[in-house]
Amino acid sequence: MNLPVNGGFQQADLRLHSAAAVLKIDGLDLLIQQRDIRTLESVSDVDRSAPGKGSVGWISFAQQRWPVFCVSSRLDLQLEIPPARGTCVLLALEDGYAGVLCDDVTILRQVSGRLHELPVAMRRHDTPIRGVVSHNQGMACVSDAGRLADYIAQIAYES
Amino acid sequence: MSGTKAWLLDLGASNRAAVGVRELLHLIDAPRTHEIPCTPAYCRHAVLWQDRLLPVMDMAGRLGGELQTGSLLAVVGYQQVRGELPRFGALMLASPPRQVEVSNEQACDLPEEAQRWKSLAISCFDYQGDAVPVLNLGRIFDAPAP
């Protein structure tokens, strides 16, 4: 079973036609295309008053405010922001934006290597993880803004 | 009746099972595993083996027991259909496997208390008074996560 090709990633060999970003969230390295990111903000810019369900606050961008979510390395929602989360990544979505907090972000100008599909036994129907790729003497999980935002929106709705 | 060889696996939490002698390919002690989010609790880690990403299956956890933290992995290979390329997975072990000789006379039914194995075993044999399920590796590794 092949994962669908989209977002500039090709099956089997990962060739990035544009730069990628690695979001560090505790022990998790989450790789998404840089074009999925609209802007990086400081966590101090997050308005933490009256957050929406499952979120930790709001970030202002383009004359609107967008929900900000905090997740663990297992991509579980966190309603308390750990001290290490210093950066808010604003994901560009089809119909707006959403913020995700991470410890730091590394921009990679070029990534190549084998994209390992997630084994069937590990593939939950709702997973935002497309596969893994070698990164920095370890592995990075590959996702994209759409899948990540859909997943977070769903668990926030269910929270 | 001629016998055949099998590997007896200690899956932790008093769970024992067997695989065919040719199904166990490699033992990895203290492997470097990688936790992957949004995966089942019993299969949360993966290991790179010969440039393949293998799921690490905690069978004791999958059977409803406490999740294991063993540092010994058995790499297994299997075919869903004869002639196809082998597929691979890794089983978490609590202690090194032991090779045993099994004959047809030892075949037995899964005991009532072992029905949780039903969808995960292809057969069962009696070994020293205990019923030992034989793992259906295709079912274990190729069934999508719930």
Short characterization:
The complex is a heterodimer of chains A (159) and B (146). With 159 residues, chain A is mainly beta.
Task: Describe, in plain words, how this protein is organized in 3D.
The complex is a heterodimer of chains A (159) and B (146). Helices cover 9% and strands 42% of the residues of chain A. By secondary structure, chain A is mainly beta. In chain A, the strands form 3 sheets. A 6-stranded mixed β-sheet of chain A has the order 9-2-3-13-12-11, with no helix packed on it. The longest helix of chain A has 14 residues, at 145-158. The radius of gyration of chain A is 15 Å and the shape is globular. The N and C termini of chain A lie far apart (32 Å). With 146 residues, chain B is mainly β. Chain B is 7% helix and 49% strand. Chain B contains 2 helices and 11 strands. Chain B has a 6-stranded mixed β-sheet. A 3-stranded antiparallel β-sheet of chain B has the order 2-1-9, with no helix packed on it. The longest helix of chain B has 6 residues, at 137-142. The radius of gyration of chain B is 15 Å and the shape is globular. The mean pLDDT of chain B is 92. The interface between A and B is medium-sized, with 27 and 25 residues.
Distinctive features:
heterodimer; A: 159 residues; six-stranded mixed sheet; five-stranded mixed sheet; 1 helix; B: 146 residues
Global shape of chain B: globular
Structural class of chain B: mainly beta
- What is the number of helical segments of chain B per DSSP (H or I, 4+ residues)? 2
The biggest sheet of chain B, with number of strands, parallel, antiparallel or mixed sense and barrel status, is: 6 strands, mixed
Topology at a glance:
The complex is a heterodimer of chains A (159) and B (146).
Chain A lengths: L12 E3 L4 E6 L2 E6 L3 E6 L14 E5 L2 E6 L17 E7 L2 E7 L1 E5 L3 E3 L1 E2 L13 E5 L2 E5 L2 H14 L1
Parallel strand pairs in A: 3-13, 6-8
Antiparallel strand pairs in A: 1-10, 2-3, 2-9, 4-7, 5-6, 7-8, 11-12, 12-13
Chain B lengths: L2 E10 L2 E6 L3 E6 L3 E3 L9 E5 L2 E6 L1 H4 L9 E7 L8 E7 L1 E9 L17 E7 L2 E6 L1 H6 L4
Parallel strand pairs in B: 6-8
Antiparallel strand pairs in B: 1-2, 1-9, 3-7, 4-5, 5-6, 7-8, 10-11
